[in-house]
Amino acid sequence: MKARFTDATVWRYVITGISKVIKEGVFRAEEDALRLRAIDPSHVIMVDLNFPSSAFSEYEASGERIPVNLEELAKVLRRARSNDVLELRLEGSLLNVWLLRGMKRRFGIPLIELEEEELGEPRLELKASAKMAADHFREAIRDVEMLGDNLILYTDGMRLVIANESEMGRAEVELTREAGLLMSLESEGEQTSTYSLEYMESILPAAQKADFVTIQFANDMPCKITFELPQGGWLSAYVAPRSI
Question: How many CB atoms lie within 10 A of CB 146?
């Protein structure tokens, strides 16, 4: 397998976020895409990362299975800087990570023994969906994070409210289409659910490089958050609801 991506910092932010809650995972290098689907040990969050073959300036793959320590991969990718090109090469028992920008840097990450859990895409009836610029989502989380461990999503079809409430008080951010903060909002009546702020924040680094974010949820149901990444890639995170 060989894959070259023109902006290494996209991978830097995405893998940094995933590795905060999922320590190990298996990349699948298929002919049409490079994929990672993994779930954390407590089964609170599942991530689904997909970069189509067209996202890469060079791509050669034939179904390789690449089990790696995601924390170690994140450490390497933190060395990526603006204008670095990322090249991934599977060579024997190593995933060689190249950062190319004049100076060529290579980091060999050993493959690990990992029993892969077969994970299908969750089938969920999510009755609310909101799309916004990734920056708006990131700022909303930052605005409410100081008050506790919960993240509340609410919509009545006219507005999306992102909130946090604890004995310290309540903070909320309201986003609407009229204010130019939402690109779209659809909901079957009022929908609300509460999630772990820790898990929501874990994937937030991806918003640094995403163009748009779509949030889907329903009353006391898991939510699905999808980041639209450059070159047609995407990262979806499914987060289980929290009972409070």
Answer: 11
pLDDT digits (tens, 9 = 90+) for 197-237: 999 999 999 999 999 999 999 999 999 999 999 999 999 99
CB 214 within 8 A of CB 182: no
pLDDT of residue 244: 55
Q: Over pLDDT 70: what percentage of the chain?
A: 100
Distance CA 9, CA 84 (A): 7
Confidence label for 118 from pLDDT (cuts 50, 70 and 90): confident
Q: Structural domains in the chain?
A: 2-110 (3.10.150.10), 128-239 (3.70.10.10)
Q: How far apart are CA 39 and CA 45, in angstroms?
A: 6
Nearest partner of 127 among 224, 194, 218, judged by Cα: 218
The answer to whether the CB of 25 falls within 8 A of the CB of 17 is no
SS3 44: coil
Tokens of 126: 């999510």
* Rounded (10°) CA dihedral 11, 207, 197, 143: 140
Cα separation, 79 vs 99, whole angstroms: 8
**Distance between CA atoms of residues 12 and 122, nearest Å:** 26
Residue 149 in tokens: 């461990």
Tell me: the pLDDT tens digits for 2-41?
999 999 999 999 999 999 999 999 999 999 999 999 999 9
Residue with structure tokens 């008050």?
A: 147
User: Distance between CA atoms of 27 and 1, rounded to whole angstroms?
Assistant: 11
Lookup result for tokens 């999510």: 126
Give the end-to-end CA distance of the chain in Å, rounded to a whole number: 46
